[in-house]
Design a protein that fits this description.
mainly alpha; Non-ribosomal Peptide Synthetase Peptidyl Carrier Protein, Chain A; 3 helices
Length: about 80
């Protein structure tokens, strides 16, 4: 399911990977950019947890491999996302 990604999530991804928020797409994910490797993935998950005040189940983290899946998981958890 493709939805609009919140500006808040876009900015976190952009900050972690040193890119502009405009270049963050729902399909951007693990292995699609050089910086999003296993260490980058962990850094992103920690930044998202901190920003949204949530904690991902360690079993879920490996399957959150792109921006859309992360947004879907945050929505499923009821994390408050800013309107796009």
């Amino acid at each position: 399911m493709t939805k609009t990604i919140s500006p808040q999530l876009r900015q976190i991804v952009a900050d972690v990977f040193g890119m502009t928020a405009l270049s963050v797409t729902p399909q951007l994910g693990l292995g699609t950019i050089l910086e999003w490797d296993s260490l980058g993935h962990l850094q992103l998950m920690l930044a998202i947890e901190s920003e949204f005040g949530t904690q991902f189940d360690p079993r879920v983290i490996p399957i959150l491999t792109n921006v859309q899946l992360i947004a879907d998981e945050l929505e499923r958890r009821g994390a408050l996302l800013e309107a796009a």
